[in-house]
Specification:
Bound molecules: zinc ion
Largest sheet: 5 strands, mixed
Helix content: 25-40%
Strand order of the largest sheet: 2-1-3-4-5
Low-confidence stretches: 1-10
Structural class: alpha/beta
Number of strands: 5
Shape: globular
Strand content: 5-15%
Length: about 180
């Protein structure tokens, strides 16, 4: 979100162990960099009482289009998941709803609502961090993109910085939802 832009880079990742990159592949390092930004956004959200999930939409030339974090509590909006907010913002910037040339990075496997929006956006690539064994609708509980109601073949890359994304959520739940 734009209002958080000025805080970029100041986030404390003290409680998270960021492992060194396992490979020096250029594409992997790019995915990792954007996921780090999504983790930062999630961290801000967690500190304001939201479940920490962050999302970033990157355009075809690997430039940042939109970023968002979960805002359900702040907005009193059941649909204010990070992915929905980021997809909407990207659509506004591009003046179109088709995001076939965009990549969405999100720290947690999307839920059914967000997976539905991702399919509707005809997203070019979904990259996510941790699997969600409770509501994950990409592969963990459901596979909506490959399901009968999907009209879009969605390329998916899961598990980027998976352990960090999982740790962040687990730490937050330990602290706020005992
Ligand atoms: Zn969602």
């Amino acid at each position: 979100m734009p209002e958080r832009e000025d805080e970029k880079g100041e986030i404390e990742f003290g409680h998270l162990e960021i492992p060194p990159p396992p490979i020096q592949d250029k594409a992997y390092l790019t995915h990792r960099r954007w996921m780090m930004r999504a983790l930062e956004l999630a961290e801000f959200a967690g500190k304001s009482g939201e479940v920490p999930v962050g999302a970033v939409v990157v355009g075809p030339d690997n430039t940042l289009l939109a970023e968002a974090a979960n805002r359900r509590e702040s907005d009193h909006d059941p649909a204010a998941h990070a992915e929905i907010l980021a997809l909407r913002a990207a659509g506004r910037i591009l003046n179109r709803w088709r995001l076939h040339d965009c990549t969405l990075y999100v720290t947690l496997e999307p839920c059914p609502m967000c997976a539905g929006a991702i399919i509707q956006a005809r997203l070019g690539l979904l990259v996510y961090g941790a699997d969600d064994p409770k509501t994950g609708a990409i592969r963990s509980v459901l596979n909506l993109p490959d399901g009968a109601a999907s009209n879009h073949r969605l390329p998916v890359l899961g598990g980027i910085l998976e352990s960090v994304c999982r740790q962040q959520l687990q730490a937050w739940f330990r602290r706020y939802r005992r």
